[in-house]
Amino acid sequence: MHQRARSVEDKARRAEALLEAAEALALELGGVRYVTLAPVTERAGLHRTGVRRYYASKEELLLELAERGWGQWRDAIKAGTEGRTGLGATRTAAVISTSLAALPVFCDLLTHVPLSLEGDVDIERARRYKANAFAAHDEIVTALDRASDMTAEQIESLLAVAVVLAAGLWQVSHPTPTLASLYEQVPRWGHVALDFAPRLERLLAATAIGLTATASGDAD
To answer: Which InterPro entries match (predicted)?
Structure first.
């Protein structure tokens, strides 16, 4: 029994090492689109074929990283709202945007999950991702509902917009090398590739104000 426990613990540790390696490489290379299994396993200190013991494919590894990202976002929201009450629309939006901006790989993955990752794993793995992502989402809503003057329905709408904005703006603000070179040649085409965090904050604040304006007329 003790040996089996150690085996399970070792497997969990190696699986986590692979996730950390994938995240580090995504940051270094400029996005998860450039992550491949061979460098991940090398960074994690495993044999190239060893990854198959933990993840069936690169897509499953990245989906696991996205699932972990939901948990990290939930924890960041809880920490950012702990002991706080009466947050108006703009402050509620700021908690959300700040927490997302601190999770760049998660924002990147929010694009890839619906485009490919969920569809390239088996149904049970997709089911587990959905269950854990929705559970984290519901905890985020609960934490914000306690701290904010916004209603739970408004918060859910704001979170839906936040996910879409974070996914899209991250891609725009992290262009491929080809586009980056093109923007250097024609700067006016690169005006959309602005700083990710400030744009996310402004657009989420405007959305939150719009969601609450009709109900209360108070956007502080």
So the answer is: Homeodomain-like_sf, HTH_TetR, TetR_C_34
